[in-house]
Amino acid sequence: MNEPAVLHLSQPLPLECGGTLPDVQITYHTYGTLNAERDNVVWVCHALTANSDAAEWWPGLVGPGHYFDPADWYIVCANILGSCYGTTGPATPTGPRNRPLYQAFPRLTVRDLVAAHEQLRQHLGLAKIHTVIGGSLGGQQAIEWAVQQPGLFEHVVLLATNARHSAWGIAFNEAQRLAIQADCTYQGGGPEGGSAGLRAARAIALLSYRSHDAYGRTQTDPDDDALPAFYRASSYQQYQGDKLVARFNAYSYVTLSQIMDSHHVGRGRGGVEAALARVRARTLVLGITSDVLFPVSEQQELARHIPGAMYAEMDSPYGHDGFLIETAQIAHFLDRFYVQTFAH
Question: Which residues are named in the active-site annotation (predicted)?
Answer without folding.
Answer: 136, 291, 320
